[in-house]
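Morning F.,

Quick status update on the modeling queue. The single chain you submitted on Monday has been processed. Sequence for confirmation:
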Amino acid sequence: QIYNSIGNETPTIKDTDYFVKTFNYIQHLIRHEKVLAGHDVSAGGMITALLEMCFAENDLSLHVDLSIIPEKKLEKILFAENPALIIQVKRNDRILENLQKEGIHYYEIASLINHSATQIMEIVFKQKMITLDIDQYRKVWFKTSYLLDCKQSGEQKAKERFDNLGSLPLHYAFPSTFTGQLHPLKKNIQAAIVREQGTNGDREMAYSLYIAGFNVKDVHVSDLIEGREDLEDVSMVVFPGGFTNSDVLGSAKGWAGAFIYNSKANKALKEFYARKDTLSLGVCNGCQLMVELGLLYPEHAQAPKMLHNDTHKFESAFVNVDIESNQSVMLSSLAGSRLGVWIAHGEGKFALPLPEENYSIPMKYSYAAYPANPNGSSYNAAAICSHDGRHLAMMPHIERAILPWQWPYYPKNRKSDKLSPWIEAFTNARIWIEKHT
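Structure tokens below.
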């Protein structure tokens, strides 16, 4: 395209029946968990697919031997965009034998390199070897995104993301007592999901509470405003994530106004927080609501605020968080853990004007650098809680990460887990209420 020399040959599928057969068999392998990794050969050809399969890890090296392929020109092998698939499988799974039986053409071209000092790809063709620096090509691959990011996030933050590419890996430390198993529980504790127009995280939150042993009911703000609900029979209130009132007035500002300027809703909320046997949780938009209403540190003359992310754009990512030593009812048993969790917000920056000791910060982003700290929060805070530990406000969506398959990367040695460690937060809440009611 650059030199106006595209040529006359177009990538195509000559045998549609064979294509369907191959596709269906690969789906069969995926369903039976026989494919460890995979990538289609499309734009950029085989070399791009192989490199992209390595980019997701920072310690993966590959030895590629293309001598078996009956093509005289290496560039045709590497850059041809004819439809094909590259899959990684275990040698002892007899996948190659089965492919042959199914009449599917394949070439065994690559194997992992163990104990490589740097991340490299060795390409062998006709007794010659080419060695590629994967770190270098990862940056080449990402540069277009970086240039676009400069327009969105500003040059400083875009460069920070670019410079930190591959250097802020996900790393986990699970609680030693965590089993990952689901235990049926009686639903005898009443929780309420309190939502407003634009809330979108209520279903995941309700499910998280339900499997932890809560009976969950749906409470719309209009129910409180019109007196249909007063929270008297509720032991735990959760304000879930979303974009209430489309965040027209700012994140959770309109939602907060519904409590401040409506007498029945205001009375129900105040009476709930005046009780000593209640818990509350706010996630994302719900966190912004709790901070806006001053529910965590009402005694502070200088109140915390939620500000726009430092990039001034919406950030969505799966990040590492560390659970600090804390007195939070929900998070105390997870102290010392490092877990993965989703974030998705535009105004997620905790602006905490006082020294750190004035706050209870049970959860922090594991890295101070962007994008691992996606918003620039004071003290790397991902969550804050009241000093008595009963009321918790966080930006990460733990309710979107309670099942292992919801994590884009989950520990390989925990195949039997039915639940992730985040379920402990909800279970801890139920146990505390049972002891205090």
